[in-house]
Amino acid sequence: DDDIFSSAFCENSEKLINVHLFALAAKYYSLSNLGVCTPLEDVLEALKGDSEGAAGVKPDEFMNNKKSHEVQVMSELVDSIANYCGIKQVIDIGSGKGYLSSFLSMQYNLKVYGIDSSSSNTNAAHERNKKLKKHWRAYQNRGRENLKSQNLEKTNDRPVESEINCKIISEELLNNASSLQNQDQVIIQDLVPSYGSTRMATPETNTETKADLVSGTQSHETKLSEEVLAVLNVLPADAVEDFSSSSYNCRELCEEEKIQRKMTSLKTKARKSSESNLYFPLTSCITAETELNDIITDLEDCMMVGLHTCGDLAPNTLRIFTAKPEIKAICSVGCCYHLLSEQFENQEECHDQVWGFPMCQYLKDKGWCCGRNARMSACLALERVAVGQMLPTESLFYRAVLQVIIEEIYGGIKRDRHVGKTFSKSSSFIDYVRRSLKKLELDDSKLPDSCIMDYYEKYKHRMNELEAFNMLKVALAPCIEVLILLDRLCYLKEQENIAWSGLVKLFDPVKSPRCYAVIALKNQSCS
């Protein structure tokens, strides 16, 4: 395959001569085609078994569509991992305004510490969380009503044929029982390590399996009531109204038993109330050497999460995870690859510095380097372009011509200077150039408007070339992202205290282009 794809370029000039072959090679080496990802459904099935996830409140009630999608998917996974590991504390690194943190706390009753380097983000998260708590009961009530409506619709859709349904279900289950042992199912022991008393049921013998399946075929009404109770049990404490004893027990209770039940109920309420809805926004800059005990005084067994941790923050969270025995699991989705620091980019000898790339020993031994241009390309969104959300060609053209002006008129600029999002604030190309020069601290007085427009007219006819070039960068983007993500996964595979690690596609890439999570769980014995 490598030999075939290499013919996309001329051997002598190394120029691209076969665009079709180039596109095929890029697709071949993309993460979705390499078969190294673990399906999200398999992970959830292994972690949760047959248990129901939390239902009711949807984050789209108080977030935009993109953030709602990300928070809903990731929070379900984080809760499943936390339950599996038997932990209640979560540390959200780069928590921003607390969208994920607050939802994990309120929807799943997890104790969440959200750490962000920006005090303005932390303050905004605190204020947002206070407002959210005010309206949370209304969101829960609405969720409960939606749940009741869905169950009612399911009940109305099914004919009242309990005996026939039971017979059909029994026959189907019994026919399938003998093949259950031979199916290639993902079981908890294969996918993730065993924690505490959590187990996922595995088939024992045909006889036992049949007996279990037969005993599981109850009437539809009984099953429905159990399903509703199962959902209610995973909601936060204040989302569930108490059932009076008469609703589930017709016999008369003695006074002593009534008092005992009432005391038990009060204790449960008090405990759940003290444990639920705990979210603490904190301000701190996280590095690979950060001591979490200095930030979180009551640090206990926990898991670490990061939703679109920027630049070096993603690899640093992985390093903290492997180094701190209290952190039992991690779920990290990185972004902003262009801001990664690279060990071999400038060939500088900095032995004490911790680099964002590469992480794994394999790439370090090869002295592998991507370079800023390649990392910038990795941030492009192929899936969005594929559905018609085209690249901002005009703004890219403005930036390209500005670069020519800077090189020819000013002799270049320092690498740490950036134009940023100037295009959206500009009324014309002239306005864009002048705003950009001021931002770069360059004197624009020696550049008349006519000179600026001369540059624009000189390169205007090449805008199509620029668009074609950027489309090639978009096609190559997944290949560069693969390298960065596999580097992180290989780093985890090199660690002795990791029981399972994998790459999981969490999000719809059209809604959220940086959609891959690096997930890992430590060995149970690690402490």
Automatic annotation (TrEMBL):
<dbReference type="Pfam" id="PF13679">
    <property type="entry name" value="Methyltransf_32"/>
</dbReference>
<dbReference type="InterPro" id="IPR025714">
    <property type="entry name" value="Methyltranfer_dom"/>
</dbReference>
<dbReference type="InterPro" id="IPR052220">
    <property type="entry name" value="METTL25"/>
</dbReference>
<dbReference type="InterPro" id="IPR029063">
    <property type="entry name" value="SAM-dependent_MTases_sf"/>
</dbReference>
<feature type="domain" description="Methyltransferase">
    <location>
        <begin position="66"/>
        <end position="343"/>
    </location>
</feature>
<protein>
    <submittedName>
        <fullName>MET25 protein</fullName>
    </submittedName>
</protein>
